[in-house]
Amino acid sequence: MVETAVNKGAPFLGRRVVVGVTGGIAAYKAAELVRLLVREAAEVLVAMTENATRFVSPLTFEALSGHRVIRSMWEADGTGIEHIAWGQEADLILVAPATANIIGKAACGIADDFLSTMLLAATAKILLCPSMNTRMFENPVLQENLSRLLQRGLSVLMPGAGALACRTEGRGRLPEPEDILEEARRLLTPQDLEGRKVLVTAGATREPIDPVRYVSNRSSGKMGYALARAARQRGAAVVLVSGATALKPPVGVEVVGVGTALDMRQAVFSRLVGCDMVIKAAAVSDYRPKTAAPQKVKKGAEELNLEMVKNPDILKELGMSKGDGGPLLVGFAAETEALLEHAREKLRSKNLDMIVANDVSAADAGFQTDTNRVKMLFRDGRVEESGLLSKDAVAHLVLDRAMEILTRRRAEA
Ligand code: PMT
Fold first, then answer.
1. What is the Å distance from ligand 1's center to 354 Cα?
2. Contact 282/214 with Cβ under 8 angstroms?
3. Which candidate in 108, 129, 166, 275 is catalytic?
4. Crossing angle for the helix pair 177-187 and 222-233, to the nearest 10 degrees
5. Do strands 277-280 and 328-335 pair parallel, antiparallel, or not at all (unpaired)?
6. Which of 219, 349, 350 to mutate to test the pocket of ligand 1 (most atoms within 8 A of CB)?
7. CA trace torsion 262, 265, 271, 276 (10° rounding)
8. Residue having the nearest C-alpha atom to atom 14 of ligand 1
9. Which one of 131, 200, 202, 393 is CB 3.0 to 4.6 Å from 228, fit for a cystine?
10. Is 221's C-beta closer than 6 angstroms to any atom of ligand 1?
11. Rounded to whole angstroms, how far apart are CA atoms 371 and 389?
């Protein structure tokens, strides 16, 4: 498959995923997993163990996947090779939930039903998502089996801790389907940022007027979160410095929550060491109220004047202080007019390697939307237009170009 930013941003598009469902109470979550995979345009085939069918009916998975579910070696299509073909033609096999039994069988090479036989013959990547009672999960036998499978190159998404169906608390919960999906995306994405550290800023800063009011802007954080997720999917260690948002923290990313522009500045500068790239998608308030009232400002006067002072320009400080070995700097420019002119000026005055300009007056781009349309400006004068893309695809495109600059820089050094 040709790797473009569009299919990096939609890693399941045109991919075949086999979901193996085994007999644990979390089998019901596999139905949601299949629904999400189908929604992301994967072709999904489901194999169930006999025990799994006691928890969820195969009909549920047939309706969600649009394909016949296979439970037994003897109900296949008659060719007698589906247990081989499924595991070799798939891009990914996801076993969720994976019981102690299937983990033990896979570790020891036991093939006594369709799913365990398929796992033994598979050439596809395999992601196991264990889910069971804590005592079972912590049992050294289970842990040894998992270590053996990890050594053989299978991937394991460790269970979470919390209340379990057996009415105990502890480690053993199947991760949420969205988190399993995120790990699957990572497995399907080329790891070209492995060994890199990327710092992303996202969302809006909030500058307090009093304890209950603030000055802010319309940034939802979606663009910055898409960048953090994309960098993580491509193997980078990611720090996400985030203003207040309603978004779920991305899996596997260090999230540092901040309030004001001054907080953001402190968070960025204290986490710069070792960074290969800083991408500033956050919408930072250029000004803040000179003083924040200690108590709620009361209604009274006909007019209320707010005295504002300038915030530090974090990106400009980064640009001015970067030496030859400093991180690659990618800015964003949010404009409502003269997009290229203003972006070009920011690229120059903030000493950036690249700037991503978006017209925030458009209905389908900029603030809050799931799509964006950007122009990327480079130091050599080149301008590249993205067209309308999902924010995930824009994120991959920005990372593609940033990586090209880093690679060129390394070759010239
Ligand atoms: O969050 P979403 O709803 O998904 O919306 C995405 C977005 C529109 C916020 C995003 O795509 C975007 O354009 N982010 C930059 C917004 C912005 O503040 O632009 P600016 O032109 O004012 O600033 C230029 C650059 O300098 C930005 O990288 C900004 O982070 C940085 N800056 C600005 C001011 C300041 N005091 N410190 C800074 O570091």
1. 14
2. no
3. 166
4. 50
5. parallel
6. 219
7. 160
8. 281
9. 200
10. yes
11. 5
The pair of structure tokens assigned to 95 is: 């076993």
CA of 218 to the centre of ligand 1 (A): 11
**Mutational test site, ligand 1, from 332, 340, 369, 388, max ligand atoms within 8 Å of CB:** 332
Q: How far is CA 100 from CA 46, 105, 132, 288, 320, in A?
A: 19, 9, 7, 56, 56
Q: Which of 245, 247, 284, 337 to mutate to test the pocket of ligand 1 (most atoms within 8 A of CB)?
A: 284
Atom of ligand 1 nearest to the CA of 245: 1
Cβ–Cβ contacts within 10 Å for residue 326, how many?
16
Q: Which two tokens stand for residue 14?
A: 């045109």
Place of tokens 């500068």: 269
166 catalytic residue (yes or no):
yes
For ligand 1, atom 8, name the residue with the nearest CA: 366
Full-prediction pTM beyond 0.70?
A: yes
d(CA 109, CA 405) in angstroms, rounded, equals 46
Q: Is the CB of 359 under 6 A from ligand 1?
A: no
Distance of alpha carbon 84 from alpha carbon 123, whole angstroms: 9
CA distance linking residue 404 with residue 294, whole number of Å: 49
- Domains defined for the chain, CATH in brackets: 5-187 (3.40.50.1950), 197-292+307-412 (3.40.50.10300)
Amino acid present at 63: A
